[in-house]
Amino acid sequence: MTSTPNPTAAVLSQDDLKTLVGQAALKYVVPGEIVGVGTGSTVNKFIDALASMKDQITGAVSSSVASTERLQALGITVFDCNEVTELSVYIDGADEVDPNGYLIKGGGAALTREKIVAAESRRFVCIADESKLVQNLGKFPLPVEVIPMAVNRITRQFQAMGGTVVLRLKDGAPLVTDNGQHILDVTGLQISDPLAFESQVNQWPGVVTVGVFAFQKAQVCLVGTASGVKTLT
Ligand code: 5RP
């Protein structure tokens, strides 16, 4: 682990930590190439920082409508994922990060496109403040994107595993993702083997994407802490 000391550490807010890791991720962006960009408040800090080197990159592949709009507003060209064959790096946040780089993602409902862009990338650099670090995944409600007609069936399957399931709402109605699907948030699960868990849930008809990122784990994690940005590899 390497650490960059921060002399003003004592007064850093969570928002400040997100800004720090967003800026720190710039060094992983390869000039002349297209960068994969995730979604969320931490990634927004990265996108804002990326504007400072927009003339050095070809553009970005984005994981959500929200990130696309932010990138374009800053003058960064956004390419469709089908226009690229491989990205050198994908930068994204997470809801939980374990010591192996396994993640829970999807708090911003963008997990499906995030997993696709992560899979398209040689290296996943996760940016997170230290509140996201856990020993074992599963305290954060696990987002699962599902086909609407399978909501009840998949709810029952998680309940049979001991989970408590909530259909995510927005403005009082089921949230509709960028892909036209719904999100279930599941608590009370034991995710002791993230690879096996991801494989199992992926088999259930109607599951679009489960928010465990074990097969698409982070290779590098930049963690914002009170004493600066720490690099976990
Ligand atoms: C969106 C995500 C985000 O990366 C995750 O929810 C972290 O978000 P934030 O940086 O706002 O804490 O997976 O689907």
How would you briefly describe this protein structure?
The chain has six helices and 17 strands. The chain has 233 residues and is of the alpha/beta class. An eight-stranded mixed sheet has the order 1-17-16-8-5-2-3-4, sandwiched between helices. Strands 10-13-9-14 form a four-stranded antiparallel sheet. A three-stranded antiparallel sheet has the order 6-7-15, covered by helices on one side.
Care to describe what's here?
- By secondary structure, the chain is α/β, with parallel strands linked by helices.
- The protein has six helices and 17 strands.
- The strands form four sheets. Strands 1-17-16-8-5-2-3-4 form an eight-stranded mixed sheet, with helices on both faces. Strands 10-13-9-14 form a four-stranded antiparallel sheet. Strands 6-7-15 form a three-stranded antiparallel sheet, covered by helices on one side.
- It is globular, with a radius of gyration of 17 Å.
- The N and C termini lie close together (7 Å).
- The structure holds ribulose-5-phosphate.
- Ribulose-5-phosphate is lined by residues 38-42, 92-95, 105-111, 114.
Give the topology, please.
Layout: E1 2-4, H1 14-24, E2 34-37, H2 41-50, E3 59-62, H3 65-73, E4 78-79, E5 87-92, E6 96-97, E7 103-104, H4 111-119, E8 121-129, E9 142-146, H5 151-160, E10 164-167, E11 169-170, E12 173-174, E13 182-187, H6 194-202, E14 207-210, E15 212-213, E16 220-225, E17 228-232
Parallel strand pairs: 2-3, 2-5, 3-4, 5-8, 8-16
Antiparallel strand pairs: 1-17, 6-7, 7-15, 9-13, 9-14, 10-13, 11-12, 16-17
Helix pairs in contact: 1-2
